[in-house]
Amino acid sequence: MSSSTGLQNIWTSLVDSLNSINSKLGKIKGVRTSSKALTGAVRQMVNDYFYSLRKQLLEYGIDTNEIDTLMQQILFLTNGYSSVNKYKKNTKNLKRTVTSMEADSLHLLSGGIIKVIAPSSTIEVSILDTLEKIAPGIALSYKQVLSDLKDSSRISYRGTAGELREVLRETLDILAPDSEVESMPGFKYEDDSRSAGKKLNNPTMKQKVRFILKSRSVPSGSIKAPEDAVQVIEELIASLARSIYNRGSVSAHTINGSGKQDLNQLKMYTDTVLCELLSIRA
């Protein structure tokens, strides 16, 4: 199946579901309804979207935030004796959005701009699946990294290094919010490695990694092992996550077309950290 055909099938499936729901709405005479046929059709459409179609759209690099919100809004209506007009308004908005996105995406695809991004390893698949559950935006950034690494025509990898660094940083921010890390017994701000004696105002990457692993009752020795594993990255920083973050910062300024090998090495270490943070086992 071609990329355009696969994408067209996704949009067609959504439009068919919305047409079926509108048909059921047209048969309802009252102002409000809790019709099992209607709520069943809506829930089926929403389930199909979030458990299957949405993932496929993300693989095409399509931003699903607008559809996500509309799907959640229409699902909310199935939880009670809801207004028929609200159902009609929501389905109208959703169909208009789907139709507009269909036209835009197929236009881009016809120009070869949208490309299907296929993970090349089971680790990448596991990382993507987990990130999509906790933070779809981070998953998209990780997909962009995969796409860049597979793009033989790419000249610079500066942006890719920055993207990879942000994947790690944002994952740590979600799993270890500053306020929770700061509330740990005995927490102290660490010195800024760039300014001797100056205290940082936020927890470091190292502190966030330790917070996450200690919250899972990981023994101290096991926490130290991954930190020590990446002393091959720059400056022999003790924390694996902080080492990768610093390497990414340098790479963002120095990597060029000949630095793909460096970028691949950075990604290998980042994948190792993400697996540890997301409890992914090979």
Quick structural overview:
The chain is mainly alpha-helical and 282 residues long. The chain contains twelve helices and two strands. It is 68% helix and 1% strand.
What does this structure look like?
This protein folds into two domains: 3-110, Four Helix Bundle (Hemerythrin (Met), subunit A) (Up-down Bundle), CATH 1.20.120; 122-277, no CATH class. Helices cover 68% and strands 1% of the residues. It has 282 residues and is mainly alpha-helical. It contains twelve helices and two strands; from the N terminus they run αβααβααααααααα. Helix 1 (3-26) packs antiparallel against helix 2 (36-59), helix 6 packs antiparallel against helix 7 and helix 11 runs antiparallel to helix 12 (260-277). Strands 1-2 form a two-stranded antiparallel sheet. The chain is globular and about 70 Å long.
How is the topology of this model organized?
Elements: H1 3-26, E1 32-33, H2 36-59, H3 65-76, E2 82-83, H4 84-110, H5 122-134, H6 136-150, H7 158-175, H8 178-182, H9 205-215, H10 220-228, H11 240-254, H12 260-277
Key words describing this protein structure:
282 residues; mainly alpha; Four Helix Bundle (Hemerythrin (Met), subunit A); 2 domains; two-stranded antiparallel ribbon; 12 helices; 2 strands
Morphology call: globular
Instruction: Report the structural category.
Output: mainly alpha
Q: Strands of the biggest beta sheet: in what spatial order? A: 1-2
Helix content: 55-70%
